[in-house]
Design a protein that fits this description.
This protein is of the alpha/beta class. It is 36% helix and 24% strand. It contains 14 helices and 23 strands. Bound molecules: flavin-adenine dinucleotide.
């Protein structure tokens, strides 16, 4: 009899955790992921603002799993799941493939949501992938370069105005970092412009930054951002956005148009398209964010062989954070192990343990919320550094991150400022060429 086949889609927090926990089981595991790396998303903003290199936060999945002989890693963009034939359909560039499964783990994460305005993405990249972070790095540093050349004062103003949409942890971190970059790192490097004049505007529909951290930490964050020089526009929705402007509408009905070339979209999330595929193939419900409404054991109702984990699952009380992904993967792996061992696990239900939230605002400043416990300032920042370092996968990445942090935090110097035109326009160029262009380009056919 052939061995049990487990297919895992995604090499993020959930997919990687599931793979590691199932390593060594009497099963053949195939991990299919769009990228060849495991990405530590919480530090993407540091890649975008020149503190860390992409290698620091995105070690290669193959290398991480190389000791586990029952795991095969394939770089694969999954496009379809045939739940009747129990096959996953995927492609690498333009080549199509099929992989059969007995147990399937779908952990393909989430992308950015532009709340029904996908065209905003042309002018305001999100921050979900290494490509996004490098594009933003090129756009941010590129705006200062263009401002140094611009003749027209209004154009200089526009180039030196950065708008960050979304005041959750990512938006707050980005806004704080762009201000620090402008006022410390770039100070004295230009001859015609004064980079310290750069405006950073943080926009959100909520009434305070970091709404999930509660009133006290939200207000504290607002004061810290004020001190840094970040302009805050709360109770404001983006109603329009193009190459040179962002239009806001406030809760009181008033509007504001901000002239800005470089925009960052750090608002809403939308689960991976595979959620919709599963809904079509199995009839499972998906919520407004495209997440799959799984049963108490995190499987698709009627399909005990299909688990949906992490950012793709909709489970009441479980937020879309790293802990949700890690804990759901550990739970699913334990069920799969029980099943392989012939133990009954039909009555088991997932329960989430909230370990709290944290966000940095700037160097030496962070906020931490754990149950009723609150921490701010330097102690919170030290806790933030320690925990993030602990969760980065791989000793090499941890050391690389520590070294880069040491230089940036002590001296304000950023060692990862290299940008290329390819980073800036690659995404848009590929989108114009179409989804299946990469194979043809590599073959010299276009
Ligand atoms: C900028 C940012 C900052 C964050 N900060 C924090 C934080 O400070 N603390 C915190 O707890 N959480 C944070 N989060 C949230 C956290 O990163 C996510 O909740 C977590 O990554 C979810 O894990 P996941 O495994 O479900 O998905 P992901 O980690 O997103 O992994 C998804 C995987 O699926 C792959 N994939 C996607 N589509 C396909 C496909 N069609 N075919 C094959 N593979 C596919 C991807 O390549 C990836 O490997 C942050 C997220 C972002 C974007």
């Amino acid at each position: 009899m052939s061995r049990h086949r487990i297919v895992i889609i995604g090499s993020g927090f959930a997919g990687l955790r599931a793979a590691r926990q199932l390593a060594g089981q009497d099963a053949d595991i195939t991990l299919l992921a769009r990228t060849s790396h495991h990405l530590f998303q919480p530090l993407l903003y540091q890649v975008a603002t020149g503190i860390l290199s992409e290698g620091d936060i995105a070690p290669t999945t193959r290398e991480i799993l190389k000791r586990h002989r029952n795991i095969t890693v394939l770089q694969a963009l999954v496009e379809d799941i045939d739940v009747e034939a129990r096959e996953v359909r995927w492609r690498n560039h333009n080549e199509s493939h099929t992989t059969g499964y007995d147990t399937l783990i779908v952990a393909a994460g989430a992308g950015q949501s532009y709340f029904g305005n996908p065209h905003f993405a042309v002018f305001a990249p999100g921050m979900k992938t290494i490509d996004d972070a490098l594009e933003l790095r090129a756009r941010i540093f590129g705006a200062f370069e263009a401002a140094e050349i611009a003749e027209d004062e209004a154009e200089v103003e526009r180039l030196l105005t950065f708008v960050v949409v979304g005041a959750g942890p990512t938006g707050v971190e980005m806004a704080g970092q762009i201000r620090e970059l402008a006022s410390k790192t770039l100070k004295g490097e230009f001859r015609r412009i004064d980079p310290t004049r750069a405006r950073v505007v943080l926009v959100d529909g909520a009434d305070r930054p970091l709404p999930v951290f509660g009133e006290r930490l939200g207000d504290k964050t607002r004061r810290e951002l004020d001190r840094l020089g970040v302009e805050i526009r709360m109770n404001a929705l983006v109603t329009d956005l193009d190459a040179s402007t962002v239009t806001l509408r406030f809760a009181d009905g008033s509007t504001e148009v901000i002239e800005s070339t470089c925009k960052v979209w750090a608002a809403g999330v939308q689960a991976c398209e595979l959620g919709r595929v599963l809904a079509e193939r199995t009839g499972v419900e998906i919520d407004r964010a495209g997440r799959v409404v799984v049963g108490p054991d995190l499987t698709v109702p009627g399909h005990p062989e299909i688990f949906v984990l992490g950012d793709m699952m909709s489970v009441p009380g479980v937020p879309g954070v790293a802990q949700g992904a890690i804990q759901s993967a550990s739970f699913a792996a334990s069920i799969i192990k029980d099943r392989l061992a012939g133990r009954d696990c039909s009555d088991r239900a997932f329960s989430y343990r909230d370990k709290g939230s944290m966000a940095t605002i700037a160097r030496f400043k962070a906020v931490v919320s754990m149950g009723r416990f609150r921490l701010t300032g330097l102690p919170a920042w030290i806790a933030w550094c320690f925990l993030h370092l602990l969760y980065i996968v791989g000793f090499k990445s941890q050391i690389g991150t520590l070294v880069h942090w040491f230089f940036s935090f002590i001296s304000g110097v950023r060692s990862q400022r290299t940008t290329t035109n390819q980073q800036m326009v690659g995404r848009l160029a590929l989108e114009r060429l179409g989804a299946h262009s990469s194979g043809r380009l590599v073959a010299g056919e276009e």
